[in-house]
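Suppose you are handed a protein chain with no further information: no name, no annotation, nothing but its sequence. What can you learn? This example shows the usual starting point.
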Amino acid sequence: MADISTPPSKFSVSKLDKAWLALGAILLALAVFASEHFMPAVIFAVEALGGTAPFIVFAVLAVAYMKATGAENLLAKAFEGRETHMIVMAALLGGLSPFCSCQVIPFIAAMLAMGVPLSAVMAFWLASPLMDPAMFSITAGGLGFDFAVAKTVAAVGVGLLGGMGTMLLKASPVFADPLREKPQVGGCCGVKKPFSDKPHWAFWNDAERRTTFRDTALENGIFLSKWLLLAYVLEYVMLAFVPAEAIASVLGGEGLKPIVLGALVGAPAYLNGYAAVPLVSGLIAQGMSQGAAMSFVIAGGISCIPAAVAVWALVKPRVFAAYIGFAFIGALIAGLVWQAIA
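A reasonable first move is to predict its three-dimensional structure. Written in structure tokens, the prediction is:
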């Protein structure tokens, strides 16, 4: 006899993974309203994912190794010494950290509790969501090695801009008493005490670290695959249904206008750093300028919901506004410089 003592859990759409749900909805819409595009969209996405597979594998294994060895704990060294030194190191290491956006919350909360200057924290905050080992690999595969290097330099540059700007303006009302009274230190990744131990490079000798490596690799492999599949399907839809002339007229050409628009569009249109790569690739194919593409990924990466929530959870609105301001200015500078170089 079936056990009926425990009522079945109710189905909730909110429990479904948003990426898979969006992917299914788009493919269903194609199958119903534009059936001739359904199979081409599937083939395009699968082939594109296959072409990116070597970069995905490298990214997944690199991040898993950093997690399993505890190499991320070396980031503590960025927050030692003089304030200017802390800012430089925080900006440099922020772009290399394997933290996801929500893991930054307990990390930064611990730093602020230890009395680390807000300027160094701002530098890390701005650089961290823009680049990491996995994102560099995916960006190099989708937009080219030169673009990936330029974005990395821009990430460090934006971090330095925000850090130095905060240090120079720390006596202003904007940065006076910056923290919320009760910071929220939760997150989708859970709260982990940072800097718990020194790196253990030969992680395979420890069962717990082997488990961390396996779980991290699996989690990131699924994460990257689902978001890239969604992005490739969106890229196909954009290429198939959005006239190239429309993109070129708005985001193409020289000058400041397309770069400003790229930064403004980046905030609401950004999915995450990985899914943005094929989207930007499609936009460039449609006529988006290189400068607008750079400003798009910089502004969008910093202002996307996961990264912004990490800041909003800990500081007062005026400091959050400064964070967004530094992001926008940094995106414009990066776009102008990359436009001139590219």
